[in-house]
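Researcher: Sequence of Hsp20/alpha crystallin family protein follows. Predict its structure.
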Amino acid sequence: MTLVKFNADKNNNQRGLVPSINHVFDSIFTDSFFAGREVTLVPAVNISETADQYQIELAAPGLRKEDFKVNLERKLLSIVVQKEQSNEHDNKNYSRREFSYNSFTRSFTLPDSADEHHIQAKYNDGILLIQIPKKEEAKMTSRQISIG
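Model: Prediction complete. Tokens:
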């Protein structure tokens, strides 16, 4: 005899192994995605390495360079943004005001080969670019090895 699992949905209705399309969309949009507007958006990053440096690119459009704080503490590089926006109209009679707070923190542990004293950061066209040079002894060197 084979046992077949059935799962109960929110209303304790039985459904088979394959959930209905409506249930999938309901669970995405009501259960976790928009519940209480608690969605935390963290900007995407690209991390690359060349022979001379590490590079972090953080996509954060709509911000100013003054909105960023880049800190280094014990090999932990932290990027912090806390920006308050208010949508107020003083010349209108309104019954609702909305405040928006954009904040996030991204942290990266630097490798031992990173030169902590010469890190540079710049913000241009919505991209925060952080360049972390490598220590001289850690830079990749290439040489020809003779075969004996």
